[in-house]
Amino acid sequence: MNYPLLRYLFGMILLIVAAFLVLPLAVAVIYGESSGIYFLYTMIAAGLLGFLLTRFKPAKRDMYAREGFVFTALAWVVISLIGAAPFTLSGQIPSYLDAVFETVSGFTTTGASILTDVEALDNGMLFWRSFTHWLGGMGILVFMLSLVNMGGQANHLLRAESPGPTVSKMVPNMRKSAAILYGIYIVMTAVEVVLLLIGGMPLFDSLCTAFGTAGTGIKNSSMGYYDSYYLQGVVSVFMALFGVNFNVYFFLLMKKYAMAWRNTEVRAYFAIIAGSTLIITLNILGMFPTAFDAFHHAFFAVSSVITTTGFSTTDFDLWPQLSRCILVLLMIVGACAGSTGGGVKVSRLVILCKALGSELRKLLHPRSVRVLTVDGKPVSRETVQGVQSYMTLYFLVTLVSVLLVALDNLDFVTTFTAVMATLNNIGPGLGLVGPTGCFAAFSPLAKIVLTADMLFGRLELFPMLILLMPSTWRKY
Fold it and tell me: Residue 214 pLDDT more than 80?
């Protein structure tokens, strides 16, 4: 283990977090709020520690998969612990455990909350809460890679943090790839802000809502607070767009339209959205005045759940059982690999379905030899095995989490969907944790489990589990 390199990288990430804290500090100052001093304290502490850790550069800059996974997992834990400090120091979230839960929910773009009254937070805290969602959407380590040239070693960090079974570079230089990703991310966010402003939403709300399109809202009733189909429509469309693999946007920018269209995962993703929206619309027709109203709320809910965003326009926990079951299944499916969404990812389901079809064909034609392909490219056996291992581990983590959270003795729907909502980085579930509920009722043990689930889900399980292996910490 290259400990000097890890020390240096932790220093860099602390300096970046300190720099980001300037924004909520500025918001607090603009609105004349006393909470600004607590952002300042946290910023100084993080900046000073970061300066000390980066004062001496490591003699060896060799980074292997082990360092990449360890740093990624610990970095997300560290930034969450630091990001929670202003909430507790200001007294707006007195329990540090609750503050960590809220911050991890932000950085992992989950949107689960322990707050019974979100609007009780002042503007500086609301901005920081929403901004953490935006930072976590593309990944704070991807942002670091866009600034720092780490050569070929950066691939291990990107691979550990990026969601999905594979990570591909858009251009040969990994730093340029990271910069392109964040460039697309910033432009899409800016476009959404402009469209929300056109719809009459205040600037502060527009910024926080755009940040939260990868997370949750700043109002107790979420997007239902804005009684505007235009504003809700803009958010629903952008939620779906943020759930697309960002490589596809790069292809569109490069005018490689055929490559974008041939992406099997994206086509499957939009097909799932369309099919689910249609079924739910038909199922809830009798609950709304017109078919368009039913379609509007169905599409918003489907877009929010499959992209693991956490927004809502109405309490879908009151919908018929069929609609609720579809939404729970969409929680598991999630968005595309290489997007800001969570869940299992559509790409894994595509690979599993193709692998299943291949096995069935082998039963019928034992002597036939067919290569498994996706988008015209062969899929290696290692990739298929990796997907199968991930799914096995996913269900094991789900099982253990449900059993531990069940110690709170709450109803099964609440317990199960709370785990699904956090492990898949969704936010709201059903029952007590539905769109109008929150996670405040859980015990400290359950909150720790659900907080860990959010990190497990955002980092795709393996980086967090690698921390528990004794061999990880041995010297070469």
Answer: no
Task: Measure the CA–CA gap between 265 and 339, rounded to whole angstroms.
Answer: 12
pLDDT of residue 282: 95
Give the confidence band of 147 by pLDDT, cuts at 50, 70, 90.
low
Single out the residue of 326, 158, 305 nearest to residue 246, CA to CA: 158
Write the CB contacts of 51 (distance below 8 Å, at least 6 apart in sequence). 11, 15
The confidence score (pLDDT) of residue 103 equals 92
Angle, alpha carbons 164-462-425 (nearest 5°)? 60
Whether 88 has a pLDDT exceeding 90, the answer reads yes
HEC-encoded secondary structure of the chain: CCHHHHHHHHHHHHHHHHHHCHHHHHHHHHCCCCCHHHHHHHHHHHHHHHHHHCCCCCCCCCCCHHHHHHHHHHHHHHHHHHHHHHHHHCCCCCCHHHHHHHHHHHHCCCCCCCCCCHHHCCHHHHHHHHHHHHHHHHCHHHHHHHHCCCHHHHHHHHHHHCCCCCCCCCCCCHHHHHHHHHHHHHHHHHHHHHHHHHCCCCHHHHHHHHHHCCCCCCCCCHHHHCCCHHHHHHHHHHHHHHCCCHHHHHHHHCCCHHHHHCCHHHHHHHHHHHHHHHHHHHHCHHHCCCHHHHHHHHHHHHHHHHCCCCCCCCCHHHCCHHHHHHHHHHHHHCCCCCCCCCCCCHHHHHHHHHHHHHHHHHHHCCCCCCCCEECCEECCHHHHHHHHHHHHHHHHHHHHHHHHHHHHCCCHHHHHHHHHHHHCCCCCCCHHHCCCCCCCCCCHHHHHHHHHHHHHHHCCCHHHHHCCCHHHHCCC
